[in-house]
Amino acid sequence: MKLVLLSGGSGKRLWPLSNDSRSKQFLKVLVNEDGEMESMVQRVWRQLNAARLGKSSYLVTGAAQLDILYSQLEDRSRIIIEPERRDTFPAIALAAVYLYSVEGVGLEEVVGILPVDPYVDVDFFEKVIELEDMLQETGADLALIGVKPLHPSEKYGYIVPEEQREHAQSHMNVNFFKEKPSELQAHELIQQNALWNCGVFAFKLGYLIDRLIGSGYPIQYEEMIKQYGLLPKISFDYEIVEKASYTIVTPYDGPWKDLGTWNTLTEEMKSNLLGNAIVTEDSLNTHVINEFEIPIAVIGLSDIVVAASPDGILVADKSKSPRVKDILKDNIQRPMYEERQWGDYRVLDYKPCWEGHEVLIKKIRITAGKGLNYERHLLRDETVIVVSGTGEFTLKGITNIVRSGDVIQIPAGYEHSLKASTDLEYIEVQKGDQLLENDSVPIDIQMLKL
User: Fold this and answer.
1) 266 lies in a domain?
2) Are 401 and 390 in contact (CB under 8 A)?
3) Parent domain of 436
């Protein structure tokens, strides 16, 4: 059995910590068994290895999340990169074609699909493994896992099975699906033995390959990459699951939670304070997550969450915190914090200046032994001020040691790179007519030597 984890989205309900680059699954607010902070994606990958599924698991993501994935996961060999962000049907189709044409996976192999951030115990993945036998035994097109609801909820989709037979079965035939009903409708669905749709399902690889062929889509990976932008922006549920002739579902009665909102995420945090914060004793069930060095104080306020990052500050009643997504739907802002495979950066200030010029100031940290690519920028000049640590700075082929207090000028068009000998922190001031993150032209050092 092969597993494909879907990693996408921006997770606006966890603003301001989450943004278009740092989605909810990358927030390091959970604690592992060793007492270390970890993200949701790190937790799930650790659990997959514990369930002996790590070597057969793949992860689909967009290019914008690649750096942070490389930073958080040591195993990078099975990451499938979407050419552009679309929806779950294109993402799963890309993964299926990769397994078929690149990995040489047989058409009878069962493929399981799951989100990258479910909050579950390791036992949940044993349930995922059971989907393989269910497909083989029943000949169903698709096998799903449905979570037994704890209460009527408007947040989840529902899987409604056909009327169950007298004898308990490990699975049931699916009658229909209902996407995010009202609380009253959810109550009625639960009376019909409906299950929460947790986004976990399985199929034989050949089933999806046949569907792709029937729709005229390529089944060779390189060609799929070329035509990826032509695939419809549609969910796998709408394009495949709800059109399947024979679908089964197996109930799961163990712990499962979607940590997609501040009220659910804080329930699983081991501490109510992360970062520099003070909360008075009469502030009950209050959580503060502070990424700034300046302190935050909360006095006499209960059942709230305070989250502060370079992207903004949120103060919200926990029960009403999911509304942040609607409030920010028209807010367009570049990410002010990004985690990269070499370290991270925070935007300290940005402003338009004279005659159309722009100035952007960043605080950048590079981990010891890592460094930035040899590259040049076409649209901006840079000034680098080393705050702490040591490293090797290369400018137009000449390398020098840099340390705390050094100031470096990098005119537009000059090839340069920086490698950290120890953990290195510096301030970078960018000046130019247009400041873009992708204003970087990589230089092949080997070609320069020819």
Assistant:
1) no
2) yes
3) 342-449
Report which secondary-structure segment, H or E, holds 3: strand 2-6
Mean pLDDT across the chain, nearest whole number? 90
Residue with tokens 């090797």: 392
Q: Which residue has the tokens 């976990």?
A: 200
- Domain check: are 355 and 314 in the same one? no
pLDDT in tens, 393-407: 999 999 999 999 999
Euclidean distance between CA atoms 344 and 334, whole angstroms: 15
Q: Bridge partners of 79?
A: 59
Mean pLDDT value across residues 383-394: 96
3-state helix, strand, coil in the chain (%, to 5): 25, 35, 40
Same-domain check for residues 42 and 127: yes
The CA distance from 421 to 370, in Å, is 8
* 315 and 346 both lie in a single domain: no
Token pair for 43: 């937790």
Render pLDDT for 100-136 as a digit per residue (tens, 0 to 9). 999 999 999 999 999 998 899 999 999 999 999 999 9
- Nearby residues of 404 by Cβ (< 8 Å), 6 or more positions away: 386, 387, 388, 389, 390
Give the separation between CA 87 and CA 144, rounded to whole angstroms: 19
Compute the distance between CA of residue 89 and CA of residue 234 in angstroms, rounded to an integer. Answer: 6
pLDDT tens per residue, range 226-265:
999 999 999 999 999 989 999 999 999 999 988 888 999 9
**Which residue type is seen at 147?**
V
Q: Tokens representing 411?
A: 């005119």
What's the Cα-to-Cα distance from 19 to each of 64, 159, 238, 295, 314, rounded to whole Å?
A: 11, 31, 27, 23, 14
Give 278's strand partners: 297
Q: Of the candidates 267, 260, 208, 259, which has an alpha carbon nearest to the alpha carbon of residue 88?
A: 208
Q: Give tens-digit pLDDT for 302-359.
A: 999 999 999 999 999 999 998 998 888 777 777 888 889 899 999 998 877 766 788 9
Domain end marker among 223, 258, 293: 258
Q: Exposed, middle or buried, 168 (CB in 10 Å: 0-12/13-18/19+)?
A: exposed
> Which residue type, as a one-letter code, is found at position 206?
G
Q: What token pair was written down for 12?
A: 């606006």
pTM score of the predicted model: 0.85
278 and 348 both lie in a single domain: no
Please indicate, yes or no, whether residues 308 and 436 belong to a single structural domain of this protein.
no
Interatomic CA distance for residues 341 and 208, integer angstroms: 34
Are residue 40 and residue 178 in the same domain, yes or no? yes
Q: 348 exposed, middle or buried (CB, 10 Å; 0-12, 13-18, 19+)?
A: middle
